[in-house]
């Protein structure tokens, strides 16, 4: 087979002619050579025309031309034979020739690889009588790993192991492709998981932004999500206040640093990021911050930054900007030197945008609250002017002239005294109503009959309209029903006093089998409901109040009077909130 191989070139047939391991069908040879078709030749019928020499020559040809590497050892594990495929593998990978070996080397010496201990047990198990196979056996040469599928089977003679045959195929390309695919799948899985985590984080932030949570709670949630998604060891949200950036929310930073630290605009990574309006990544915080003279010489901040830079090495600062307005900055800290990818910087910018949006929403809420407060103050001022102030002014005039009138015309003085009493009681009722408006909780706690009596006294005192009350005893009503009926009565009485020119108003509240009915009727000039917009006379407001509680609102009007009726039926038991 090979030049210099004494096992076959000298005509030695100890492992071929009559050897059951190569020529017989006793079961040993198929395990070693069945895949190569060797058994089909050596196990031919005795009547075949080929001579033994011809058969051996043909076997040699097939053996050398096999696409897999084949070696044959004796019972001591010493190499007896190999084919050209195996020789080519050794010469190409290991860098030396099999022809340079001394006679009869140990099989495992052929590999001379850094992990030869993985090869030796396979040969030893085969020489012990076991057929061994291993997929992707790693062989390391000069720091590079190659993979081979290996089958090692014993050669038997007269029932005893006489040697072993090892067949191996190079599968390095397959294994590398498989490992590359595994790596790509793993990377893709990590990417999908990361994107899922980012999506869930942003969804949670969106829910927090649309909730009634406080600003600090929302910012703390955003800081926690940013720290988790970006693997930061600490995070802080700085807010621009009084010309300095001060920490409003922090995680992972010492309490003294959070309480006392401040940054001037344009100073350090955060100041520079805000000034440039783009993220700033720093791989060495100490070199970046402690080199600043204003920081190095600051007796307050220098100790704080010394401790910070001892714990943290890298930093990413992102500005908080909404609609061109700077709110502050988001800072992420890492306890090791780290170079952040563009994707990580982009994610940090996304979290910064959410934090800036939270600050913008808080600012808008403050503006809305201030505007609502201002509007409410203006409304109360108008009500005071239209009702209480005018009533008190009229009462003051009557009180000024009452002594002189009483001296001259006692009967007229007595009438003026009655008017004075009516005006003061009306003013008192108006003030109580305004106080209820300022205290919604008190409005919710009061009983409906008390609220309606107070409205009637206020209207009577302000407009000199006679108000007749008919209020029945009622079971407790749900808060929203009570408030809605109160508002309907308030709007209807105001219409009667301001627009109807009425002299008398009847206000009735009676119980229904499963609810309550409110009715307000006046003897005023009336109006045509078909010609009046729902925005006039508070009609739309009354309908909205009734619809909100599921009540039926009926408005009837004609020359000579208007009647407003609101009927509410109690829903099924267990679905209402008692007052």
Structure in words:
- With 579 residues, the chain is α+β, with helices and mostly antiparallel strands.
- The chain has 3 domains: 6-170, Beta-Lactamase (2-Layer Sandwich); 193-359, GAF domain (Beta-Lactamase); 452-579, Heat Shock Protein 90.
- It is 49% helix and 21% strand.
- The protein has 19 helices and 16 strands.
- It has helices spanning 6-9, 28-33, 38-42, 52-65, 84-94, 120-127, 172-209, 215-229, 255-260, 268-276, 285-289, 293-296, 301-311, 342-408, 410-438, 440-445, 448-463, 479-498, 539-549; strands spanning 69-74, 79-82, 132-141, 144-157, 160-170, 234-241, 244-251, 262-263, 280-282, 314-322, 325-334, 466-471, 504-512, 515-522, 552-558, 561-569.
- A 6-stranded antiparallel β-sheet has the order 8-7-6-11-10-9, with helices on both faces.
- Strand 13 and strand 14 (515-522) form a beta hairpin.
- Helix 7 runs parallel beside helix 14 and helix 18 (479-498) packs antiparallel against helix 19 (539-549).
- The radius of gyration is 50 Å and the shape is elongated.
- It starts with 5 loop residues before the first helix and ends in a 10-residue tail after the last strand.
- Residues 1-48 and 574-579 have low confidence and may be disordered.
């Amino acid at each position: 087979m090979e030049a210099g191989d004494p096992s076959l070139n000298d005509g030695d047939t100890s492992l071929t002619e009559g050897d059951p391991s190569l020529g017989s069908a006793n079961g040993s040879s198929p395990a070693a050579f069945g895949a190569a078709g060797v058994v089909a030749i050596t196990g031919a019928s005795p009547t075949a025309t080929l001579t033994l020499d011809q058969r051996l020559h043909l076997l040699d040809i097939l053996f050398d031309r096999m696409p897999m590497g084949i070696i044959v050892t004796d019972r001591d594990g010493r190499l007896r034979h190999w084919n050209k495929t195996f020789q080519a593998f050794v010469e190409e990978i290991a860098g030396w020739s099999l022809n340079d070996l001394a006679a009869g080397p140990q099989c495992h010496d052929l590999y001379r690889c850094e992990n030869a201990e993985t090869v030796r047990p396979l040969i030893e198990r085969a020489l012990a009588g076991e057929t061994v196979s291993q997929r992707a056996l790693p062989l390391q040469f000069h720091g590079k790993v190659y993979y081979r599928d290996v089958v090692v089977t014993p050669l038997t003679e007269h029932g005893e192991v006489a040697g072993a045959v090892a067949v191996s195929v190079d599968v390095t390309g397959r294994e590398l492709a498989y490992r590359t695919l595994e790596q790509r799948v793993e990377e893709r899985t990590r990417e999908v998981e990361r994107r899922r985590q980012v999506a869930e984080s942003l969804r949670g932030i969106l829910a927090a932004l649309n909730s009634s949570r406080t600003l600090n709670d929302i910012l703390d949630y955003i800081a926690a999500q940013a720290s988790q998604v970006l693997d930061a060891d600490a995070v802080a949200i700085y807010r621009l206040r009084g010309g300095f950036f001060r920490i409003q929310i922090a995680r992972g930073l010492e309490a003294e640093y959070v309480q006392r630290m401040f940054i001037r605009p344009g100073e350090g990574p955060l100041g520079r990021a805000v000034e440039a309006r783009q993220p700033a990544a720093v791989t060495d915080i100490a070199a970046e911050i402690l080199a600043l003279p204003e920081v190095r010489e600051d007796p307050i901040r220098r100790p704080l930054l010394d401790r910070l830079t001892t714990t943290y090495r890298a930093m990413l600062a992102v500005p908080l900007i909404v609609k061109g307005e700077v709110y502050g900055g988001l800072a992420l800290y890492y306890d090791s030197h780290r170079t952040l990818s563009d994707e990580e910087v982009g994610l940090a910018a996304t979290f910064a945008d959410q934090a800036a949006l939270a600050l913008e929403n808080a600012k808008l809420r403050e503006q809305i609250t201030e505007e609502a407060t201002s509007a409410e103050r203006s409304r109360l001022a108008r009500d005071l002017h239209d009702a209480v102030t005018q009533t008190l002014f009229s009462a003051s005039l009557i009180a000024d002239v009452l002594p002189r009138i009483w001296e001259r015309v006692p009967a007229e003085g007595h009438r003026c005294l009655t008017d004075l009493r009516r005006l003061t009681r009306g003013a008192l009722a108006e003030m109580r109503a305004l106080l209820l408006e300022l205290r919604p909780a008190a409005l919710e706690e009061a009983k409906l009959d008390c609220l309606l009596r107070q409205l009637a006294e206020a209207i009577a005192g302000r407009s000199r309209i006679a108000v007749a009350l008919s209020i029945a005893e009622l079971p407790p009503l749900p808060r929203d029903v009570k408030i809605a009926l109160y508002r309907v009565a308030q709007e209807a009485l105001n219409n009667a006093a301001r627009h109807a020119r009425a002299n008398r108003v009847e206000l009735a509240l009676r119980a229904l089998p499963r609810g309550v009915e409110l009715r307000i009727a006046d003897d005023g000039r009336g109006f045509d409901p078909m010609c009046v917009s729902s925005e006039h006379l508070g009609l739309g407001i009354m309908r909205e109040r009734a619809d909100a509680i599921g009540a039926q609102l009926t408005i009837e009007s004609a020359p000579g009077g208007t009647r407003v009726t609101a009927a509410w039926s109690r829903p099924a038991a267990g679905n209402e909130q008692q007052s």
